[in-house]
């Protein structure tokens, strides 16, 4: 894996080679990384893995034609062949009037923001093993837990560099630490499995291995002795473990490419109120230590904290340069890409702000409700917004969480869900997409 300066220089040199080979414009993305992971099961070492690799990708333009190629071989000979192949492919590609680099006036400039995404601590395999063992032991110690599917601990580091013929060059790096456990509760046909995990940029931000294991055990035991709820319409609460999935559906619907293709259920909703008055949804690529923080996007465009929804109103799309040209707007700083593909869009640290009422108040808002902790399947139609997914959760009566339920479905339409949902006050930043507990006042609950 190259250093920050080395990978930026490599990207710049490859851009220059592409221009000398006849390209009208080009950009290059380098990604390098290393990771170590240790898995244990029932107190014994189960797996130790270490990986390290790097890849570089070139996208070049011949007029309105373009091609993208990638290589894990960074030798001069391999890069020369990469450029020749890309030029040949672009010459055969169809013309795309919307393709091209980002506008120069929107590019980020150094010095870039210090996002504190690098932790100098890198635990060795022995330390990772001890963390995994501690996590599993805590999970197995929970009364009712009868077996383990394993526990793990990991550490990783990555470097990213981007250079364009439009004048941009930059690089950044990040680290990651993780811990997880998955255990089984109960015996025979009544067994239930659940897990818990956490990831963080800095080791000091990671919960203790004991608390992660204990939470995995508690969740598995809570799922024992499930019941069947009656089918019908009832309030549904999405636990923070799954509430972020609603933001995932929302992010897909405001993607510039989806809107440009007219395949989004939010197609005509820009500037309109689609959530309740108090709902705010934010994308913040500059949050210190954020799991998705970055100083520039996948095209080199400057990034900033953005309120995508404010006061319930949809204020903008997420667009890369190509989809922005189709929509007649400016790129929004949400371009994301792999080394071998053209940019698409993706949110960064994406979250729904906390509401005013506590989780306990929302649980007690109705005499009976359903608390969902796991979703099954991909049952959301991005064109119509129709929503139907398998679910696992708990019945809630008079604010008290009761017996577990499984083999059920929950259904509605995302437009109706967005318009009526209420976020609780329990927001925590634990993933790339975060939301507090969310109450949907009415959904259709079915049983298998």
UniProtKB/TrEMBL annotation:
The protein's name in its UniProt record: TldD/PmbA family protein
UniProt xrefs under PANTHER family: METALLOPROTEASE PMBA
Domain Metalloprotease TldD/E C-terminal: 232-446
Similarity remark: Belongs to the peptidase U62 family.
Organism from which the protein derives: Sphingomonas anseongensis
Domain Metalloprotease TldD/E central: 119-224
Phylogenetic lineage: Bacteria, Pseudomonadati, Pseudomonadota, Alphaproteobacteria, Sphingomonadales
Top-level lineage group: Bacteria
Pfam families in UniProt: PmbA_TldD_1st (PF01523), PmbA_TldD_2nd (PF19290), PmbA_TldD_3rd (PF19289)
Metalloprotease TldD/E N-terminal domain span: 26-90
């Amino acid at each position: 894996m190259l250093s920050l300066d080395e990978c930026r220089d490599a990207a710049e040199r490859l851009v220059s080679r592409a221009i000398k080979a006849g390209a009208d414009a080009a950009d290059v993305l380098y990604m390098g990384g290393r990771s170590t992971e240790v898995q244990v099961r029932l107190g014994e070492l189960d797996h130790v893995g270490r990986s390290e690799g790097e890849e570089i990708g070139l996208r070049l333009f011949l007029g309105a034609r373009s091609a993208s190629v990638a290589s894990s071989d960074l030798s001069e000979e391999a890069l020369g062949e990469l450029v020749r192949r890309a030029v040949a492919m672009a010459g055969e590609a169809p013309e795309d009037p919307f393709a091209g680099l980002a506008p120069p006036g929107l590019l980020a400039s150094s010095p870039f923001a210090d996002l504190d995404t690098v932790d100098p601590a890198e635990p060795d395999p022995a330390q990772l093993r001890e963390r995994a063992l501690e996590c599993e032991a805590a999970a197995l110690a929970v009364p009712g837990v009868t077996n383990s599917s394993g526990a793990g601990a990991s550490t990783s580091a990555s470097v990213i560099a981007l250079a364009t013929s439009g004048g941009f060059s930059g690089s950044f790096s990040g680290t990651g630490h993780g811990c997880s456990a998955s255990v089984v509760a109960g015996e025979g046909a009544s067994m239930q499995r659940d897990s818990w995990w956490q990831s963080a940029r800095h080791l000091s931000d990671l919960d203790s291995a004991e608390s992660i294991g204990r939470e995995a055990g508690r969740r598995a035991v809570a799922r024992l002795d499930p019941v069947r709820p009656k089918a019908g319409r009832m309030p549904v609460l999405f636990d923070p473990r799954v509430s972020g999935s609603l933001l995932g559906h929302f992010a897909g619907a405001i993607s510039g490419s989806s809107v440009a293709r007219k395949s989004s259920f939010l197609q005509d909703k820009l500037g309109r109120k689609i959530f309740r008055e108090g709902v705010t949804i934010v994308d913040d690529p500059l949050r210190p230590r954020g799991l998705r923080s970055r100083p520039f996007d996948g095209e080199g465009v400057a990034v900033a904290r953005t309120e995508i929804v404010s006061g319930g109103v949809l204020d903008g799309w997420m667009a890369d340069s190509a989809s922005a040209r189709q929509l007649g707007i400016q790129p929004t700083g949400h371009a994301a890409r792999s080394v071998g593909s053209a940019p698409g869009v993706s949110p960064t640290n994406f979250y729904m702000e906390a509401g005013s009422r506590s989780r306990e108040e929302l649980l007690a808002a109705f005499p009976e409700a359903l608390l969902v902790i796991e979703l099954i399947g991909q049952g959301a139609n991005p064109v119509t917004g129709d929503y139907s997914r398998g679910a696992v959760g708990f019945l809630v009566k008079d604010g008290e969480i009761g017996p577990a339920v499984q083999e059920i479905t929950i259904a509605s339409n995302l437009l109706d869900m967005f318009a009526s949902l209420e976020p609780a006050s329990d927001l925590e930043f634990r993933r790339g997409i975060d939301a507090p507990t969310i109450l949907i006042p009415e959904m259709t609950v079915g049983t298998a």
